[in-house]
């Protein structure tokens, strides 16, 4: 599922304040395979200090495993592997603007989107990345 970037394009006068996704995404992606046990995913999230794991079957992305879904599955004895927990998420390209990607995050129902280039996963953009980019870009002395 990949929404059109034109639909979410920022007005030209705001482009300086609307950086491309490639400038604010997390390029280091920690991923997992669908047949991995839940405890392996939990350990990977803890050691990698991440809350989202793209679930990859070869080069095909099945979705993202979200920390809250994983914790709930471990607590209640959910499926034995991560595959059934993978949520579909929007895919965006590194050239998309922050505002368009933020809308894709909102519409996707998961607080992340995957960043792809030529069908290859090159990064992840999370709500934390979006908030950080806004905070870093805020003028010094702005009200908090």
Descriptive overview:
Helix 2 (38-48) packs across helix 3. Strand 3, helix 4 and strand 4 (112-117) form a beta-alpha-beta unit. The termini are far apart. The protein has helices at residues 21-24, 38-48, 67-76, 98-108, 127-137; strands at 52-57, 60-66, 91-93, 112-117, 120-126. The chain has 144 residues and is α+β, with helices and mostly antiparallel strands. 33% of the residues lie in helices and 20% in strands. It has one domain (11-136): Roll (CBS-domain). The chain is built from 5 helices and 5 strands; from the N terminus they run H-H-E-E-H-E-H-E-E-H. Strands 3-4-5 form a 3-stranded mixed beta sheet. It has a two-stranded antiparallel ribbon with strand order 1-2.
What sort of overall outline do the alpha carbons produce when their principal axes are compared? globular
Based on secondary structure, the structural category is alpha+beta
What is the domain tally? 1
CATH topology: CBS-domain
Terminal Cα separation, in Å?
A: 36 Å
The biggest sheet amounts to: 3 strands, mixed
